[in-house]
Amino acid sequence: MQKYRQWSAMLAITRASLRSIFRSPSAVIFSIAFPLIFILVFGFMSSGGNVSVNVSMDTSSDTSNPIYASITKIPGLKFIKGDTSKINSELAKGRIAALIQIQATGKPGSPYIINLTSSAAANPQNIQLIQTILGSVISKMNQVAFKDIPSIATINNTIRQVPGRTYRTIDFILPGQLGFSLLSAGVFGVAFLFFNLRQQLVLKRFYATPIRRLYIILGEALSRVIFQLITAIIIIGIGHFAFKFTLVHGLLTFVNIMALSFIALILFMGFGFIVSGMAKNESTIPPLANLITLPQFLLAGTFFSIDNFPNWMQPLCKILPLTHFNTAMRNISFEGASLLDCSSDITVLLIWTVFVYAIAYKIFKWE
What we know:
single chain; alpha/beta; D-Maltodextrin-Binding Protein, domain 2; 2 domains; 6-stranded mixed beta sheet; 6 strands; 62% helix
């Protein structure tokens, strides 16, 4: 009689358990896929040459000097061209961080001076970044070709300000957080709701009543819409009154934001219907839902501008619907744009809505 081997039994259990773990979508996605996504995203952000700041060259600048030729070749500075009125408008809105002016001083020790013009709407961190980049360029030029003079140029530390609204961190963060709140609620809320209604045979019991299927969905969806719009009101209210979140035109801006939130929420709920139809059991809902929400959370400009990503990745970011919600939301709240002004972003959201609900219609299950 062969002796029972405890180690063999233990290893058999280990193999079976390990096989079970790898067959679990939740375990694979939460343990492997999500950490890799975070590593890739923040790795791209921290790698060199990926930071981009919009600037413009003042028309009165001396463009015949070597400084001009050097700074226009820097990947981190994206030079915006246009007529003076357009440039000044973009500068006042913060879309252009600074206007760069290079002037000859006539002094032998420092032949050029660089002046910067900005506005309160510009992110202060971008101004500091521009000063750092310009200082680095000047230092490198001094070491290579201008060793005989103290410095080829100096940077004027006094930055001229044009009128503009004060830019606060909350003006960037709150739209992204509101968008992700709507996305998460639309996907997770609808997916779990209709999966449980189907599994608990509640939908089947509805069939015994005179109500039609369409009205069942509309009734449940309407409750979600009302709840999330109330949530949006709370988020915007706290942001505005406690942290001075900008609502340029007051109540009119708020109404435009709520209309945009309604459009986005209808779209995001469509993703929830898709997840509900694809889910085999309740444990598969979180990984499926996170495959939709997490990439948008990281790549759609929720915490940081998509300009921080490599050029090849930015078109992918601009496809995501949350990117267009965030962009439109920031334009409406901070720049005072109307829904009509944001028609391009809203059009993308509507195209996504048609596409998503076409898929949801095909795969949605009643039983």
